[in-house]
Amino acid sequence: MTTALSTALLGIPLPAPLAEITFAPAIYLTIAVLFPRKVSFWSTAIGSALGEAINVLIFGSAPAAFALIYIPGMIWARAPEALIMNRFRRKSTVWLALAMVIATVYETLAFFFPDWFFYSFTFFYGSPTGVWAGLSLAAFDFGTLIDLLWIPVALLVIRAIRKAFGTQFFGET
Length: 173
Hints:
Elements: H1 2-8, E1 11-13, E2 20-22, H2 24-34, H3 37-58, H4 67-87, H5 93-121, H6 131-138, H7 151-165
Antiparallel strand pairs: 1-2
């Protein structure tokens, strides 16, 4: 639920075509390190989907028809980030930071390539725009790299939670 709320409610508006920067990356990166793989994957997938649904359907961040693209796109981009991060959860802080960078680059590319296709060959903006125009529109997805700013925040939250609860991980079996 925290991923959903941080996606929908804790955002800083950005100029178009970028919508906003949200606190969500700090949350799902932290969850991916502290919790088991299945928990981190599903909480990121479901939380991102719910948060984006709230953004589109309730707050009107995009036309409601775009929910059919935006919600699966958030799952496609963010849930694997949790798996990437979870893979490095037992490593040093340097490895965690590197894994967070890799995960954020993955997310950016996961937005970019489908968007390039959608903008080029579909009626996303009323009519297909062509490969080069689609590329220029999709290039704004590289603004997602601003999420790299959340890496130090996530690392501080992970350290604080580990210290407060006296454990490295939750839900270990």
